[in-house]
Every structure is written in C-alpha cells, then in structure tokens.
Amino acid sequence: MSSFLRTGKKIVAIGRNYADHAKELGNAVPKEPFFFLKPTSSYIEPEEGPVEIPRGVIMHHEVELGVVIGKNGRDIKTSDAESHIAGYTLAIDLTARNVQDAVKAKGLPWSTAKGFDTFCPVGPFIPKSRIADLSKVGLHFSVNGTVKQSGTTADMIFKVPDLIAFVSSIMKLEEGDVILTGTPAGVGPINAGESFTAKLTYPDLEGQVLSEYTM
Amino acid sequence: MSSFLRTGKKIVAIGRNYADHAKELGNAVPKEPFFFLKPTSSYIEPEEGPVEIPRGVIMHHEVELGVVIGKNGRDIKTSDAESHIAGYTLAIDLTARNVQDAVKAKGLPWSTAKGFDTFCPVGPFIPKSRIADLSKVGLHFSVNGTVKQSGTTADMIFKVPDLIAFVSSIMKLEEGDVILTGTPAGVGPINAGESFTAKLTYPDLEGQVLSEYTM
Ligand SMILES: [Mg+2]
Ligand SMILES: [Mg+2]
Ligand SMILES: [Mg+2]
Questions:
Q1: Which of residues 121-160 of A touch B (CB under 8 A)?
Q2: CB contact (8 A) between residue A41 and residue B108
Q3: Which range of residues forms the domain containing residue A109?
Q4: Residue A65: helix, strand or coil by DSSP?
Q5: Series of mean pLDDT values for 10-residue runs along chain A (215 residues)
Q6: Is residue A43 less than 8 Å (CB to CB) from chain B?
Q7: Residue A115 — φ and ψ, nearest 5°?
Q8: Angle at CA of residue A111, ends A106 and A112, nearest 5°
Q9: Sequence-separated (6 or more) residues with CB below 8 Å from residue B8
Q10: How does pLDDT run across A113-140, given as a tens digit for each residue?
C-alpha cells in the first residue's frame, strides 16, 4: 500500500475530531463524526515542488494522522476495523479558510476550500506495525520555526476504529483510500515565503520522529 | 475511456446549473459555477443491483449529462476544453435531500448527502463523436412511468467548456474523471419499491435515445 498516492481514489477527512480545535474555530464539539472529501489530485509529496497558495486565499495548516486502507469494506464493524488498516501517513489538510468561512455561511459545499491542487501534502507510507498504540501518536506543526500545533491522538474524540465503521456505513472504503483523522488546536495561516515543518512522533510528545515533511 | 468507472478518481458535480432547477429548491441562480465531489465508490451500473435507499433518507433523483475526461489538465482554457473530453455518460446524481437540507442549514459539507453507496447510477460510455452539438442533449427522468424531469442542455447556465475551465482552475482534471453538469427542474423522491427510467436523447427532446437506465 505504499502506492496509495497513485492508486487511492478517495481522501475522507474528518472534521472537528479534537475538542480544542473545534472550539478554537467557534464550533460545537460534534456528537457524531462528520467528514468531507478531498480529491486525490490535491496530494503532493515534498519532491514534487512547493505548496501553492491560490490568489486571494488564506491558507491554513491542519496536521493530521492519515489512515491508509488496505482492504475493501462496507459497513465495517468497529471490532473488524483494524484488519482494514494497511498503515498510516503524515498528512496536512490544507484549507482555504476564508473560502471555507464564506461557503459555510451560504450552506455551500466545502470541496473548493479543501480541494485545491497541492492542498494535501503527504509523507511516506508508514506500515501498521510501526504504530503499536494508535492513541500515542504526536502531531506537530511549525511555521518559520515557531511551533503552532503540538497535540496527541490521545485527544481524538472519535477513535480510528469508530471512524472506519462510521465512514464505511455511508461509503465503502477501498484499498488505497485514506482517512484524515482530524487536527489538534493551533491551526493558522501559512503565508507566501514562509517555511513549515510537519511531524508525526511516536510514542507521543516525547517520542522519536516517525515522519517529517518540510518545505 | 470506457473504463472510466474503474479507473476514474473523481466525480465533480456542478450545482444549480439550470435556472429552473435552482429556483424550484428556493436557491438563487449562481453567478459563477460551484461544485461538490461525489466519491467514485457511489458508482453503480444497472447489472450491479438496485439502488439502495439508506434508512431515514429522502432520496431525490437528478438526471445529468456526465462528461468523461480523456486527458489530464490544469488551468485548461475554455478554448482547449473540448480536447480534454473523451466522451459522455448518462448519470443520476442521487441526493439524500433531507440530509442535504440539514447540513446546508448548519454550514456542514455535502459529502454524505451526495456520497452514499449506489448514489451515482451511470450508463455506458458514449464516445464524443456521438454528440456533435452539446447544447442539444435531452435529459429525461420518470418514476413509475410518470415523467418527472424533461429538459435540454440548451438551458445550462454554464456550458461544458466553461465548466472544464472553472474546475481545472481549482483542481486538475485527470483521465477518467467525470463532471456531472447539473440537472433540470423536476427533481423529487424515489420511494422504496418504485421503478425509474433515466434517458439521454439526441438531438434534444424529439431525438433518439442515446442512453437509458431503468431500474
Ligand atoms: Mg450503509
Ligand atoms: Mg482537517
Ligand atoms: Mg446534481
């Protein structure tokens, strides 16, 4: 499944899955998960070139743990969810925040705000065996060397098996699909000319770097 | 590109592209196109089995002309758009209208309302050469033998080349991607046990049947 970037068909991104992030944008903490789709055309790897900020867009970073699906499934049970995971990836759910605010106010889809080309930087595939405890992954993001996000998957409201069960009750999950599991607090803009670094660490905040994406 | 159902990665669906349909749902006629993504996991062909109505969902039909992309492109010019078209397909943009109404009111994504499994019935690939004039395609939908939708692509607000240019200015279009170009007036529910027929005709309303989907 290291080929998920080329073969995967969907990116299912969970919204507001960390209470502190939901609150920082003035949103209620959700009672059940919700998600949106990012197009796989928004994937970009470090060697492919820079992230592009579209004209007039205020682009926010959201560092997330991506779950790479390894086996097709519909209506997957929470107890079976683990067997559908091939591995993980570091992902940045880049968001045109001003576009998103405008469409939210009008009840319009989020697809443009979340789907611009280069809006889903991703690191390499991380085999499942590398993360023994899914509640102990650290998520970090810095801009120009200043730490902006530093969280842990321990704070996810809905856990990965529940997310797999929920999503697959609506749309089947296929080999190579990726679920972005939400972002901790600290989101904010990346401006033209600024550099950034995203990191996954394990175990948790004091652990070793599992994956790093710098630009 | 007859393999688009297996190889395509995205379905980009245009909203409110026929003025009479925008009005019937109480929406303003848009000044620029907007779109949402349906997952390709929602595709279903007639021989694959029935459309499934999820529990509690009021499922509406929207018959649409699908444009199948044959060549990758970013920032495609309107004048070049035609060269990126491989052909067409009859598509039904099934919509959980009650779910959509609820998320619109909350400013949430449309992905669930539009993305359930079996929510994108599609007919066979229609080579580009079969439709010489894109403004003369008839779109028809009947439920239990009663005609509900009967429109013509002549009434599209934004024409296909403009849609290709618009979408590809936000997200690149790839071989096998499909653009659903919007639905004419007459949308409404399909209830459990009801049969339906969707048709594309050419030229226009008095023409021959190009494609038909019955269930
Ligand atoms: Mg289901
Ligand atoms: Mg996110
Ligand atoms: Mg539609």
A1: none
A2: no
A3: 4-48+56-214
A4: strand
A5: 91 94 84 96 94 97 98 98 98 98 96 98 96 96 97 96 98 98 97 96 87 91
A6: no
A7: -115, 10
A8: 85
A9: B40, B68, B69, B174, B175, B176, B177, B178
A10: 999 999 999 999 999 999 999 999 999 9
Q: With an 8 Å Cβ cutoff, is A105 touching chain B?
A: yes
Q: Decide if B92 is inside a domain.
A: yes
Q: Which residues of B touch A10 (CB under 8 A)?
A: 39-41
ipTM given for this complex = 0.96
pLDDT value at residue B1: 72
- Please report which helix (H) or strand (E) contains residue B105, including its range: helix B97-106
Q: What order of strands is seen across the sheet that includes strand B146-152?
A: B146-152, B138-143, B196-202, B208-214
Decide if B196 is inside a domain: no
Q: Name the pairing type of β-strands B43-44 and B120-121.
A: parallel
Rounded to a whole number of angstroms, the distance between the first and last alpha carbons of chain A is 25
Q: Return the sign of the alpha-carbon dihedral for residues A201, A78, A20, B116.
A: positive
B201 within 8 A of B36, measured Cβ to Cβ: no
Q: For chain B, how far is it from start to end, CA to CA, in angstroms?
A: 25
Partner-chain contact A41 B174, CB within 8 Å: yes
Which residue type occupies A47? Answer: E
d(CA A97, CA A62): 11
* Distance, CA of B82 to CA of A89 (rounded, Å): 37
Residues in chain A: 215
Pairwise CB contact (< 8 Å): B170 & A40: no
d(CA A149, CA A139): 7
CA gap A164, A86 in Å, rounded: 13
Domain count, chain A: 1
Residues 6+ apart with CB under 8 A from B213: B46, B90, B92, B121, B122, B123, B197, B198, B199
Whether residue B210 is contained in a domain is answered as: no
**What whole-number distance in Å separates Cα of residue A38 and Cα of residue A53?**
16
Report the pLDDT averaged over residues B161-169: 98
Question: Average pLDDT in the B109-114 region?
Answer: 98
Which of B35, B116, B170 has its CB closest to that of A170?
B116
A93 in Cβ contact with A120 (< 8 Å): yes
Nearest C-alpha neighbor of A42 from the set A99, A94, A110, A78: A94
State the DSSP string of A86-144: EEEEEEE--EEHHHHHHHHHHT--SHHHHHSTT-EEB---EEGGG-S-TT--EEEEEET
CATH number at residue A160: 3.90.850.10
Contacts for B35 with CB less than 8 Å, ≥ 6 apart:
A109, A111, A112, B12, B13, B14, B15, B167
